[in-house]
Task: structure prediction
Amino acid sequence: MAVLITEKQITTLLNSNEEASSSQLDESLAAAEAELRPALEAKGLGTKLELADSAMLRRFLIARRLQIPATVAMLEAHVAWREQTLPIHLSEVRSEIHKGKAYEHGVDVKGRPLVFVCSRNFDPNTRDLEQCLRAIIYMLNSALRKHDAQFAVFYDRTDFSLSKNLDIGDACGPLPCRPPPAD
Result:
């Protein structure tokens, strides 16, 4: 890939409070995206991913600082996870959703769906972690489909109690809890 922008510049742009509108970043993303598509095709992922979905490809490229091999590896893991986890049907998670732990309600000023998470409704003594995670995945997937893969989350701690509602298993669960990579 012809490096149009350094990794340090990428980090600076992505960590700034500005919308990612830098022409340098846009050019670098376009070049990386053009290189990523054939790499994904070569791995046989072209039929499993929507390669025309620039927004999705760019999210993964940004997550891996435009490094093509790392992005391909991340997308391979993503495809494997989706094949193992999805689809999730409402009938499978309806009872968990009815507990009011999270719900969608309206949109923000940019038209993105709003997802509210109510921590007071989490009870580690009565929940099934697998069902809880499947319900959360279902709800977030639903929100993602509604607005160009973006949504806003509000975390409501009203009436939250450390003794009743804190659920470390829910927070980390099967997800690898590890520190962010060093710069």
In short: The longest strand covers residues 102-107. Helices lie at 7-15, 23-42, 54-63, 68-85, 90-97, 129-146, 162-165, 168-172. The beta strands are 102-107, 113-118, 152-156.
